[in-house]
Amino acid sequence: MIDQCYLGVDVGSVSTNVVLTDRHDNLLDKVYLRTGGRPINAICEALNIIFQKHGNNISIWGVGATGSGRQLADAIVGADIVKNEITAHALAAQKLVPGVNTILEIGGQDSKIIILRDGIVYDFAMNTVCAAGTGSFLDRQAARLEIPIGEFGAYALKSRNPVRIAGRCAVFAESDMIHKQQTGHRVEDIIAGLCEALVRNYLNNLAKGKEIKPPVVFQGGVAANIGIVKAFEKALNTEVIIPEHYDVMGAYGAAIAARTVMNGTKGESRFYGFETLKKEYAAKSFECDGCSNGCEVIEILSGGNVTACWGDKCGRWTGRIERRTPCRTDIV
After folding, report:
1. Residue 228: which of 268, 196, 264, 193 has the closest Cα?
2. What whole-number distance in Å separates Cα of residue 30 and Cα of residue 177?
3. Cα angle at 59 between 55 and 63, to 5 degrees?
4. What number of other Cβ atoms are within 10 A of residue 161's Cβ?
5. How is the chain split into domains, by residue range?
6. Where residue 100 falls among pLDDT bands split at 50, 70, 90?
């Protein structure tokens, strides 16, 4: 039995990731699932996979949550620490690549850059608006070209004359790609041009005005695309390092944070246990009329009881848990 283990849960709009680590931050197992618009189901399914594989052979001493759905993960799993994505990714990168100065991260729906100096987050930027700089855009173009996304990067490496594609907007990039196809350009050159356009978009939007110093680490699902990796290396004129667990770095960082905050304390974790998988959860919301803010308050219900609330700016509802009835009866 592995006596001291930690869970890291990263809930995003595209993927939900859970990692299992030991007290030395070694990654024992990882689960990468598509969120599919059903984050509660994805969290429970990922935890169930961990439980089915390891069951009673592990003892959970701490849980960390991150990602855009980190509050939801906290409500369902019982996290000891909830961290934003910037902190979680920085912790993971520094663990696997000591001395890292720049972190490039591109996920399914957003992208970010993190600048570190002397092990501290010095600057960062996030892009949650432009679709042209995300993995979902690449997925869509690969499907349109009828090329498996796993082979997309390999096609780019075959190019000898990449075409220039407008990459500042997803709509313009797609129409430009269609135009290049109609004018007879090779698929390899179009794909290579698309990779370079995405990198150009990323550097012009997120990295503008920032000093990108090596070591440079690239993480997130798009790091698996060798075409994007080579485009970054070409644009930055430096090696881009792909860490071993590039696809679950947020969850890995959350697990590291949990191990740190628990400091080897047994029995103090808020983890609800794997038996929580037997419960049924539902998410509902209502608009608070307590003031002019009109906050949308999210409720998580289990067995008819509200187990967590968040979304308010004043804290009126946040933290109200295990109530006998929902916060409001006119929820939608």
Report:
1. 196
2. 36
3. 105
4. 10
5. 2-89+250-278, 98-242, 280-332
6. very high
Residue 257's Cβ-side half-sphere holds a number of Cα atoms within 13 Å equal to: 28
SS (H, E, C) 254-320: HHHHHHHHHCCCCCCCCCCCHHHHHCCEEEEEEECCCCCCCCEEEEEEECCEEEEEECCCCCCCCCC
Half-sphere exposure of 238 (CA within 13 A, CB side): 13
CATH superfamily of 2-89+250-278: ATPase, nucleotide binding domain (3.30.420.40)
Tell me, what amino acid is at 264?
Answer: G
Q: How many of the other CB atoms lie within 10 Å of CB of 76?
A: 26
Q: What is the pTM of this model?
A: 0.84
At residue 330, the pLDDT reads 35
Domains 2-89+250-278 and 98-242 share a fold: yes
pLDDT digits (tens, 9 = 90+) for 40-97: 889 999 999 999 999 888 999 999 999 988 988 888 898 999 999 999 999 999 999 9
Q: What is the pLDDT of residues 107-149, one digit of tens each?
A: 777 789 999 999 999 999 987 555 555 667 777 777 777 887 7
**Neighbouring residues of 56: CB distance < 8 A, sequence distance ≥ 6:** 1
Output the CATH code of domain 98-242: 3.30.420.40
User: What's the pLDDT tens digit per position in 253-262?
Assistant: 999 999 999 9
| Three-state SS at 9 | strand
**Distance (Å, whole) CA 314 – CA 206:** 31
Give CA–CA dist 4/95, Å, rounded. 19
Question: Which DSSP helix (H) or strand (E) runs through 88?
Answer: helix 85-96
